[in-house]
Amino acid sequence: IYATAGTRGAWLPLSEESTRVATAGENFSIGQIDIRTVRISHDATEPVAIIATGQTTGARAAIVYDLGMMTDSLRRALERVDILVIESNHDSEMLRNGPYPAALKRRIAGSEGHLSNRAAGVAAAECAHNGLSHVVLAHLSETNNTPQAATWSMREALRRTRFRGDITASSQDNPSRTISVDRTAAFGPVQLSLGL
Asked: Which H helix or E strand runs over 54?
């Protein structure tokens, strides 16, 4: 198990013997996959985004959620990804009119909270390119969002970009389907399995 020191310290079941510490900004490899960690903005203990790159094919997948805002370093790290798993936590109006107490609403909508559907769309549009084959919407609030609202918002954000791939809203209760990237004809389809 790889975890930041902050995550390992905050979650008691992770012991020093069972984890390897990954520092934000660190690059390391697991088998044939190069991993890059990027610090993100969230009110947790040392959270990071993960960008995984296949050494043989160069296929790249990013998992980015539990963040309140995009940073320049994260934008740069997401350039040329083939698969983007990004938080699309809440519909801003549903959050504003929803049942949560005012303090929790402010936390969720704050710069160390969670990305709204609109903010997720802006972030995805900033890194959209012809090779981006799939955007997976993750960490959808069951109270302040719907898969339909999140998907519609992402489609609208990506409509004027070069993105021509698929958009999938992930479920909190079921694993996502397997997503394959056809990076180059020489290597054939490259399977990247994402467990959300």
From this structure: strand 48-54
CB 83 within 8 Å of CB 182:
no
d(CA 187, CA 111): 41
Residue range 131-158, pLDDT digits in tens: 999 999 999 999 999 999 999 999 999 9
Residue type, 111: S
User: What is the spatial distance between Cα 41 and Cα 147, in angstroms, rounded to a whole number?
Assistant: 24
5 and 46 in contact (C-beta within 8 Å)?
yes
The two three-digit tokens of residue 109, written as one number? 């909508």
Provide Rg for the chain, Cα atoms. Answer: 17
Cβ atoms of residues 10 and 44 within 8 Å: yes
What is the rounded end-to-end Cα distance, in angstroms, of the chain?
16
- pTM of the shown model: 0.89
